[in-house]
Amino acid sequence: MPLPDHSGHEPQAGKASTGLQTPRETRVTTILLIGKLMSRHGEALCRIRNLSSGGLMAEVHVPLHEDDPVQIELKAGDQLAGSVRWTREGRLGIAFDEPIDVAAMLARATVKTAAQGLVRAPRFAVDCLAELRSDGRRHTGRLVNLSQGGARVEADFEPEEAKLLILAIPGLPERRGAVRWVGNGAIGLSFLEPLAFEELGLWLVEQQGKV
Question: What CA–CA distances, in Å, run from 51 to 56, 106, 162?
Answer without folding.
Answer: 4, 10, 38
